[in-house]
Amino acid sequence: MIETEPWSGLPAIPGGWRVESIAVVDRMLKLVLPARPDDFLDDPDVLAANQTDDYMPYWSYLWPSSVDMAQAVLSAEWGPDRRVLELGCGVGLVGLAALQGGYELTFSDHDPVAVQTAVHNARLNGLERRAHGVVLDWREPTASRWPVIIGCEVTYEARNHSILLALLRSMLEPGGVAWFGDPGRSQAPPFIALARQYGFAVRILDRQLRPVDVASDGSYTFQLIELTF
Predict the structure, then answer these.
(1) pLDDT tens by residue, 191-228
(2) CA dist 33 → 93, 118, 120, 126 (Å)
(3) Beta bridge partner(s), residue 23
(4) What does the pLDDT average to over 36-45?
(5) Which residue(s) pair with 18 in the sheet?
(6) How far apart are CA 201 and CA 197, in angstroms?
(7) What are φ and ψ of residue 193, in 5° steps?
(8) What share of the chain has pLDDT > 70, as a percent?
(9) How far apart, in Å, are the Cα atoms of 73 and each of 21, 98, 152, 177?
(10) Which of 205, 210, 212 lies closest to 226 in space, CA to CA?
(11) Distances (CA, A) of 170 to 5, 44, 111, 139
């Protein structure tokens, strides 16, 4: 069990930590997350990493679509005990929903502190038994393959689309499924078009997991982009 402060064991960060309880369907999940994410933008280490590798501390924000995505994951029917890899886990809300749903979940992110935070939050909610964590650079896919890969708000930068799709071709099992939560950003249609060029079958689902014909483009309506290979 976590003792003293809920963030005990996590490293010191710019702006410190806070705790927030998030309702996902009929469940409450407790999250430790950065109290003032914008403080990272003035941190010397972050500024140096940005200069060398265009790094931005996106993990430190609780992204708007994460609650919708978490609710969708709780409704998923991927089969019992499926192994799930989350890309760009951030503070871990979506992965916590997968753990609540009975899946074995590996949090992954480019930032080690994000992975540490997500695993910490799994422990805070009593979900650590099926939780794992790995630091993953999308430009360097691993040899591991997964039946389910998920990510929330990871398709907003066009320069990462081909990198992400190449990773999926390497790490998604044949017959597997990938879900990407998106709030209707303008980059969704280009990502979908490129995914089809990469050989993926694509479906667009609404928040009730009903298929829709056309991806939302700039309307900021939550949608799921489902890829199969």
Answers:
(1) 999 999 999 999 999 988 999 987 776 667 899 999 99
(2) 10, 9, 10, 17
(3) 28
(4) 89
(5) 33
(6) 10
(7) -65, -45
(8) 97
(9) 18, 6, 11, 13
(10) 205
(11) 40, 35, 21, 11
CA distances from 99 to 93, 172, 184 (A): 10, 19, 26
Q: Are 228 and 169 in contact (CB under 8 A)?
A: no
pTM of the shown model: 0.94
Residue 2: band (very low, low, confident or very high) from pLDDT cuts 50, 70, 90: very low
State the alpha helices, DSSP H only, in the chain.
44-53, 66-74, 93-100, 112-124, 161-171, 188-197
**Which are the contacts of 68, defined by CB distance < 8 A and separation ≥ 6?**
181, 183, 207, 222
- What values do phi and psi take at 117, rounded to 5? -65, -45
The neighbouring-strand residues paired with 20 are 31
Q: How far is CA 178 from CA 64, 104, 165, 168, in A?
A: 20, 15, 10, 8
Q: What is the mean pLDDT of residues 11-23?
A: 96
Q: Which residue is it, tokens 């794992």?
A: 132
The 10s digit of each residue's pLDDT in 132-147 is 999 999 999 999 999 9
